[in-house]
Amino acid sequence: MPERKTLLLSLMQDLGLGQTVQSLVGGQLRDGAGDAVVLEDPYALIELTRYADCGAALAAEACEAAAAAQKEWAAGYSAAHRGDIMQDVARAVLDHHEPLARLEALVAGKPIRDCRVEVSKVAEMFRYYAGWADKLHGEVIPVPSGHLNYTLREPLGVVFQITPWNAPVFTAGWQIAPALATGNGVVIKPSELTPLTTVALVRIAESAGLPEGLVNVLCGLGPTTGQAAIEHDAVRKVIFVGSPETGSRVAVSAAQALKPAVLELGGKSANIVFGDANLKHAALGAQAAIFSGAGQSCVAGSRLLVHHSVHAELTDMIATGMNAINLGDPLDEATEIGPISNGRQFAHVSGMINAARDAGAQVRSRETTPDSGYFVPPTVLSGLGNRSAAAQHEIFGPVVTAIPFADEDEAIAIANDTAFGLAGAVWTSDVGCAHRVAAAVRAGTFWINSYKAIHVSSPFGGSLNSGFGRSSGSDALMEYTSPKSVWLDSGKTPKIAFGYVS
Ligand code: NAD
After folding, report:
1. Which residues in the chain come in under a pLDDT of 50?
2. Does residue 118 have an active-site annotation?
3. What pTM was computed for the model?
4. Tens of pLDDT along 326-365?
5. Minimal CA–CA distance to 37: which of 23, 24, 25, 49?
6. What is the DSSP letter of 226?
7. If phi over 0 gives left and psi between -120 and 50 gives alpha, with beta otherwise, what is residue 317?
8. What are phi and psi of 386, to 5 degrees?
9. Is 250 in the pocket of ligand 1 (CB under 6 A)?
């Protein structure tokens, strides 16, 4: 399918990129110097392009460019001016909405309808944090000594952000916007498998007035490019979005350099359905929770806990309904679920389904899948307990493990019986039950009679193997700033009781 390679090049041109994947350092597109990285089209299964890993030297240049630009951004621009530029960035993102969405669909294998929503959300993120830029201030604290004591919220300096392949441009906006609003400079390393829309986003932002070098994008591999940036002296904090295994390695590297980290990791979220729920809504919600994005979502409802009285009925509704979902080319307007985003993940998801079958699961999969591409059929597993591998390990594919429960206490106990703490949901018509379960389940985000709603204005994050720290909302402003406490002798304070000045 040579036309897909041609499409890639024409989208790259429309978005101001070169003819190959290049890092963006100090406002310049730059070739890497390391090993070759191949971008494969997960639908057509052809090589789209290949490029050289950015490497440590260019990563260091990026950190230095960000440090220089950040000083000017924090001291040379008023907060209101920073907000104005971010509003301009939001508008510019919307002006480039379609090519950005198509580039994401082509490379990440995500349905174009989902990509359009995610690009719109990026504009919304810049608008939201633009509003915060001139509303961030410290406090006056009534200390007992009589000093005037006040706090300033200061930017950290340069932050290094590492993002995964499942929602590249969305995650880039999610992290870059709050960092900029709070006066920081950014170095960001998207997944080596999906780097282009992050580079394109920052090019668009620069064309809208963002100073060059303030945000730098490294196209390359974690152990080389990523590690070099974590260790660079200019970097003051690391924000990692990805798997628990890599997150742990990144946090250790950051800690060795005495740098803090935010970790946004995986999940094994419980979607709990009681017998009194509206079953049609719950079935549709459960399908969206696990099948949208082909299950490649950190908050996916991958464990479906169902009251035993409706377990058979609900799982039948989901298994039957999944045959009506449109699977196909991510660039096709009608496609609701695309392929798995890359070959490595496809092998992992397929292996987990086979292992579940070997462990005695009843496996119900959608009857057909497209001929071409890394497609895994939407699948419901039953007959396994909550301690099974399928219920404990993140599959990150369109595979849900259905588990019956007897009562509210058991549902909560099962929900909390994993190493994760990212998200969850409950479906019931009993308001009291809904709030009790929402309070008792360990999760950073929890939905009642709903699933997957998130917004830039609301905090997002997890605990345990799902990570720590918060992205989005006003909580992200705290992650990207540090307080400084200033003490002024008001003249009424007690005299210093030690030391002499002659
Ligand atoms: P991953 O951990 O393999 O990679 C994530 C990023 O880390 C990539 O950019 C990768 O290049 C980089 N990396 C790898 N090794 C590194 C190293 N040694 N040093 C520095 N960087 C390194 O994850 P993935 O497969 O790309 O994404 C899937 C995972 O992401 C899933 O576990 C999913 O749950 C998680 N995720 C979490 C959230 C969230 O907000 N909680 C959102 C999306 C995805």
Report:
1. none
2. no
3. 0.97
4. 999 999 999 999 999 999 999 999 999 999 999 999 999 9
5. 49
6. I
7. alpha
8. -70, -15
9. yes
